[in-house]
């Protein structure tokens, strides 16, 4: 597929000067889309270079999309998936891959359909985008922080920079990101612009973020990564989330893919209300491939093979070394006790512990550690097919500034590409 077809805007009315606030994923895509038909496009970026957050995504490898089917793509959006229907179908994940490859970026697909640059360097993604903007004569203004968005009689009219300079423009696309990783420049500017122009902003909160727990043994397990476990989060007896995969223990609690995904589902429950947040229960099944009965038979078999050994020396095959002393402590069985002296009831409690390793989740880590922001500009105030504001003509929103988010795996960047593309095309279309 040729990229020219993706961005074919010929014959449409020229809107004149298009101003884009933010040179991240959504902003650069919007700029490319808007400029393909010869529009005058300016990107205002407060940092010393564009794509600063892109540079650190996927641990510096940039998981730029997910090569799943469309049903899975929508199912992976945890907030307002219906709003993205038009944007996702207008610029699909397949088109995203084709677009980058047409710019000269070789890609590869890994476990979970995660798509990365073949080089494993996020800088290559940024480089091809910068080159495309240069080809399309997009003017990128660095160290250019926007202070205010101006409107006249419900129509966008221009921007005021932090240095006091005013820039006239016909169209503005706000692609400022959220609040996650504030060191990259995501400091909530877009929310301020949105509220000032009359838009509702759903309270932002960290998402795809590690969780804090209160149990002492989290710190003891710091650095331990568990694969092929099942994790479920409960609010009392109500199950809020359950998934299978990988997790990590930290000095403050838990992290890793399973936990990050859980945070996007249960995070609101942990937000303080009237000064106090709710506590949730995390249950980890350390042996999800086995039923309770199968695991009991496995443990019984291990015990029978080592019946004259002490308990602490008879469970090496069940756990990683770092987990063993914690399981010993929580089991209530003396480590010195001989296996042949362990009662059936003690063994059953031990099996239950393995299948229901519990921790109390007390809160989320902050925006500094969050991959994305949950919340943002209310989608009720935005046209889903164009990303144009329903309240201010010629004002558009794209990317993380919107109240849409998804699981890890390239889905959030796909939201940025698709909404950026939709906004850029609509801005150039004169709608």
**Strand line-up across the major sheet:** 13-16-15-14-17-18
Strand content: 25-35%
Number of strands: 21
Architecture per CATH nomenclature, i.e. the level-2 architecture of the largest domain: 3-Layer(bba) Sandwich
Evaluate the radius of gyration.
25 Å
What can be said about the biggest beta sheet? 6 strands, antiparallel, barrel
Give the N-terminus to C-terminus distance in angstroms.
26 Å
What does this structure look like?
By secondary structure, the chain is an alpha+beta fold. The chain folds into 3 domains: 3-206 and 373-429, 3-Layer(bba) Sandwich (FAD/NAD(P)-binding domain); 211-287 and 360-364, Elongation Factor Tu (Ef-tu), domain 3; 292-357, Helicase, Ruva Protein, domain 3 (Orthogonal Bundle). It has 13 helices and 21 strands. A 6-stranded antiparallel beta barrel has the order 13-16-15-14-17-18. The chain has a 5-stranded parallel β-sheet with strand order 7-2-1-11-20, with helices on one face. Strands 3-6-5 form a 3-stranded antiparallel β-sheet. Helix 2 packs parallel to helix 6 (122-135). The longest helix has 19 residues, at 411-429. The radius of gyration is 25 Å and the shape is elongated. It starts with a helix and ends with a helix. Mean pLDDT is 93; it is low at 1-15.
């Amino acid at each position: 597929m040729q990229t020219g077809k993706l961005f074919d805007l010929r014959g449409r009315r020229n809107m004149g000067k298009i101003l884009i606030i933010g040179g991240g994923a959504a902003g650069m895509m919007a700029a490319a889309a808007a400029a393909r038909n010869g529009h005058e496009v300016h990107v205002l970026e407060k940092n010393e270079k564009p794509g600063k957050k892109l540079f650190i995504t996927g641990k510096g490898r940039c998981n730029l999309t997910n090569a799943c089917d469309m049903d899975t793509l929508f199912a992976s959006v945890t907030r307002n998936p219906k709003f993205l229907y038009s944007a996702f179908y207008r610029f699909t994940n397949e088109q995203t891959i084709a677009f980058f490859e047409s710019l000269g970026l070789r890609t590869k697909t890994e476990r979970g359909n995660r798509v990365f640059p073949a080089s494993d360097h996020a800088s290559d993604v940024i480089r091809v985008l910068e080159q495309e903007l240069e080809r399309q004569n997009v003017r990128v203004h660095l160290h250019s922080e926007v202070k205010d968005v101006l409107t006249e009689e419900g129509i966008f009219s221009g921007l005021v920079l932090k240095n006091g300079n005013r820039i006239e423009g016909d169209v503005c696309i706000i692609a400022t990101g959220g609040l996650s990783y504030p060191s990259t420049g995501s400091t909530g500017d877009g929310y301020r612009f949105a509220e000032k122009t009359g838009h509702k902003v759903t309270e932002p909160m960290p998402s795809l973020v590690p969780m804090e727990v209160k149990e002492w043994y989290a710190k003891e397990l710091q650095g331990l990564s568990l694969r092929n476990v099942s994790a479920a989060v409960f609010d009392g007896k109500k199950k809020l989330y359950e998934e299978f995969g990988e997790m990590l223990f930290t000095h403050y609690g838990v992290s890793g893919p399973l936990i990050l995904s859980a945070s996007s589902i249960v995070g609101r429950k942990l937000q303080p209300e009237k000064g106090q947040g709710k506590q949730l229960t995390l249950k980890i099944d350390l042996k999800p491939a086995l039923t309770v009965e199968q695991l009991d038979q496995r443990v019984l078999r291990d015990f029978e093979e080592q019946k004259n050994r002490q308990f602490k020396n008879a469970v090496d095959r069940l756990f990683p070394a770092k987990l063993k002393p914690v399981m010993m402590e929580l089991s209530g069985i003396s480590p010195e006790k001989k296996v042949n002296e362990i009662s059936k009831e003690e063994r059953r409690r031990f099996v239950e512990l393995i299948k229901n390793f519990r921790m109390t989740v007390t809160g989320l880590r902050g925006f500094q550690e969050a991959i994305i922001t949950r919340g943002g500009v209310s989608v009720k105030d935005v046209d889903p097919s164009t990303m144009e504001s329903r309240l201010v003509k010629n004002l558009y929103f794209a990317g993380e500034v919107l109240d849409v988010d998804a699981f890890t795996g390239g889905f959030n960047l796909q939201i940025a590409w698709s909404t950026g593309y939709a906004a850029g095309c609509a801005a150039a279309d004169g709608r």
